[in-house]
Amino acid sequence: MPAELPLRLLGVLLGTLAAGLFYWIIATTLGPLMGVIAGILYAIYPPLAMTSIAMEPDGLLPVFLLAVLGSVIQGTRAL
After folding, report:
1. pTM of the model
2. Are 58 and 14 in contact (CB under 8 A)?
3. Mind giving me the DSSP string for 14-39?
4. pLDDT range class, residue 1, cuts 50, 70, 90
């Protein structure tokens, strides 16, 4: 169990990053108030919270998908 602690903490950190990315994506497209609401809902949604601390590769998926989506949105806004 103690050997898994750093991996779980990394999962929590990536889950927090994913919530921040989700906030940023929604705030840039729909406005800051909607971004705050969406970010809070993303952070407290139980299945997403369990995914971030699960010892499975799927726990890394949301943060990378949101990073790609944010990059696409930022890239299209620059045009």
Report:
1. 0.87
2. no
3. HHHHHHHHHHHHHHHHH-HHHHHHHH
4. low
